[in-house]
Specification:
Order of helices and strands: EHEHEHEEHH
Distance between the termini: 22 Å
Strand content: 15-25%
Number of strands: 5
CATH superfamily: TT1751-like domain
Helix content: 40-55%
Shape: globular
Oligomer: single chain
Structural class: alpha+beta
């Protein structure tokens, strides 16, 4: 699902939102929104920095990994292998035209992929609502 008329990606299950901010500003806003909601930031992976260290170029591309065991555990209780998809993550990246984008995987798509959507609908709906509000805060003008 691609929103805000962004045609940057068409990978199944991805939600992509355009940001009017720089990648760094968007990432900072994203991290603040995550922490403000009581989630834990597990890792930041700066792919562009890693590329530069081996002499390669990559537009700004940073993955923020974050979560909450209270939200993720019910999904793993229903299908333990969904743990490969958790904690949640969001990618802040710059497209070919220099626009900042924020992408994340739709929790309903993840639950459906693992065959547990109906069994975990309440948890998935909560995760989806949380991700939507975090993404909106990170990308709002």
């Amino acid at each position: 699902m691609v929103t805000n008329a962004t045609e940057a990606t068409s990978a199944a299950g991805l939600v992509t939102i355009a940001s009017p901010h720089t990648p760094k500003e968007t990432l900072d806003r994203l991290a603040r929104a995550v922490v403000d909601r009581g989630l834990t930031i597990v890792a930041r992976v700066d792919h562009a920095d890693a590329a530069a260290k081996v002499g390669l170029e990559l537009r700004p591309t940073v993955l923020l990994v974050f979560g909450n065991a209270r939200a993720g555990t019910p999904l793993m209780q229903a299908a333990q292998l969904i743990g490969i998809e958790l904690p949640l993550r969001a990618l802040v990246w710059q497209d070919e035209a220099g626009r900042t984008q924020l992408s994340y995987v739709d929790p309903a798509w993840l639950a459906d992929r693992h065959g547990i959507l109906l069994a975990t609908q309440k948890s998935v709906d909560h995760m989806n609502s949380l991700l939507q509000s975090i993404a909106a805060e990170a990308t709002s003008p």
